[in-house]
Every structure is written in structure tokens, then in C-alpha cells.
């Protein structure tokens, strides 16, 4: 992969930094990749090679590019950090037969020039995690502190990839920005679409793209926070992780993985008495809402999960962010799906729901969690049986058949593959 022709240009009411990407292993035509924002924030945007490098490193690795060559100077800590980040992803998800691309670039001997005043930002979607990060930051850092968040980055192409819908999201967050002292910055990029697969985003590219956006704005930002999905007991290998985030830092921008001390219910409790959050929580991407004043549909799994958390804390009735009186045992039964990435969110809700008198809702969750745990135990047992049978057959073949069974199976596979 080659990244060339880094440039800055005006596009109507926006400023854009762009580069030309050329695949070397894939049979795809060259394409333009870009980051842009409205002119109000254009001074912070510059064609930083780190932004394009971070945005492209995971797709280059995924598609087997032998190298990632960029026409620009990069800092040595960025090169080493990306090597570590790709190794983590390879170790977790790809296996030993895959490799990360060799990064080819001129080395920059110093940090970003000119030196900027310290300014912290965060990625702000309006959900529980991002509101939790903002609330925690406001409670722990005086506004004059370098890590006190001043900017909230709202990203087109991640929240939604339709302009009208994205404008609705931006408008819905403006009241929050005014009341919290947050400057809301809309950012537009197409690097997410180098690989549209949701699993790839979840497993590999999440933090890489966020960090790329932060470095695109590195003439404005010196620190950026990415909200954690999980707390320490439940952290799992994925594309946003404390072991990854620090590797996307540079002398220009420190990337922080924020909120790992708090579970999802802890974050909900943190904002439960913060009226601006309670009235403006936005967890839903239901497209039917974008021509209405409602922020959330109240019927998707994200809405139901969030409403259950608010109900468990006794504040759901105080929030205007969700339709009233829609939560029911039947709705929970129909939309909630328990799997490894969500079980911790629901398990912590059952006890407080019972304490608030919602035994019927807690019972539905307990039943679903028990069914999930039974499925997982059955899967584990099947895996143990397969491994045991395989081990015994292998030992029998070696002892009594002198390896003839293994050779027979190998020959059958070769003949099948050659047909």
C-alpha cells in the first residue's frame, strides 16, 4: 500500500485533508481518503502523515499488504506503536501465519511545530459511555487542567453515513455542548469504508480510526479520550482496548482509554442525577427518528438496555430521551440477546431491578442469562469431547496403525482439493 499526495483543500463550507491510496496486493483502483470538518475548526486540521498511517494500518494488515509506504515524515514512536498495535490484533484474532505490513516513511526528528497550547478532546456520541467520560472528567479535572475535555468529536460515517441523519445528530447534541462547555466538532471521513465489515471495526480498526481523526486535528488537540466499553473485570480483546490506545499516541497527541474503572451501570449511575445527560441521552441509531424530536426509539436492544439501567436506578421516569411507558417484559423478551459481549451489562441489572420492585423484568433477564450460560457450557463440553476423541484416535493410530490413518486422511484431502 502506498499513501501519496497528502494535501489540504477547501470543499464548499468545509476544509479537507486528503491523500491518494494505492493498493499493491489488492486488485483495487487507487482511491482518495480524507478527513474534513467545517471551516470554523479548519485551523486545527492539517495533512498529518500520522492520521493517514493510523487510518490505513489495519486494512493494510487485513488485506495482506507487504508494506505501508507513506510520502511524509513520521515520528519514531508512532512507527513502533503501530507495530505493537498490529501485533496485538494479529495475536488476538488472526493467528501466527499472518503478519503486519512494514512501515516505510522518513523519520521526523522532533514533535509537531509550532507548539500548541494543551487542549483535550473526546469522542462524543451522546451515549452512556461518552456521557460517563464527560461527567467523570468534569468531576475530576478543573476546567483549567490540560486534561479537562474542551472538544467533543462527533464523527460522520460512524454514527451514520447519511448527511441528513448526521445533521440531526449534531443538532440534538448542541444543547449538551452549550450546557457542559463542550465545543462540538463534526468530523467527516471515509477511512471506515476501507473495510466496511462490522466485525473488522469491532475487532481491529476502532481505536486506529479514532486516533487517526485525533491526529488529523493535531494542530488543535494534544490529548484525546476514547470511552471504554467495559470495566476492568470484563475487558476483552477487541479493537478498543487499553493495551492498544497508548500505542496510537505520538509526541503530538496523547490517546487515552477512558472509563475502565466503571461498569456500564456505574456510568449510568454517574449521569443519573445530571439532568443535561438524562434528558439528552442518545443511544439509538433508528433511522425513523430523524424526522422527529425523539432521540431514541425505545424498542431496539440499545434503547431497552439503557432504559433498564435507568429503571434500576429509579430515574427512567425523569428522562424525556425515551418514549414513555414502552418497557415491558414482552419487549425485553423479544429484543434482548445475551452473548459474550453483552452478558456483563445485563447481569449487573438483575439485583437492582428486583430492589426497585421490577421482579418481572429481572426474571426475564435471569432466564436469558441462564440460557446463555447453558449454551456456553454445552459448547465447552462439545469442545472437550472433540479434543478427547481426537487425542485418543491420534494415539491409537500412532500405537496400532503406525500413522497409516493420518496418511490416509491426508491423501484424501489432497485428492479432494485437486478435483
Q: Can you characterise this structure?
A:
This protein is of the alpha/beta class. It has helices at residues 49-62, 76-94, 128-140, 163-180, 198-216, 242-245, 264-272, 275-280, 301-312, 329-335, 343-347, 350-355, 359-400, 404-418; strands spanning 2-11, 14-22, 31-38, 67-74, 102-107, 120-123, 149-156, 183-189, 223-227, 254-258. It has two domains: 2-258, no CATH class; 283-372, no CATH class. The protein has a ten-stranded mixed beta sheet, sandwiched between helices. The model has no long low-confidence stretch (mean pLDDT 91).
Kindly summarize this structure in a few lines.
The chain is an alpha/beta fold and 419 residues long.
Descriptors for this entry?
single chain; 419 residues; alpha/beta; 2 domains; 10-stranded mixed sheet; 14 helices; 10 strands; 45% helix; 17% strand
Topology (elements, then pairings):
Elements: E1 2-11, E2 14-22, E3 31-38, H1 49-62, E4 67-74, H2 76-94, E5 102-107, E6 120-123, H3 128-140, E7 149-156, H4 163-180, E8 183-189, H5 198-216, E9 223-227, H6 242-245, E10 254-258, H7 264-272, H8 275-280, H9 301-312, H10 329-335, H11 343-347, H12 350-355, H13 359-400, H14 404-418
Parallel strand pairs: 1-4, 4-5, 6-7, 6-9, 7-8, 9-10
Antiparallel strand pairs: 1-2, 2-3, 3-8
Helix pairs in contact: 1-5, 3-7
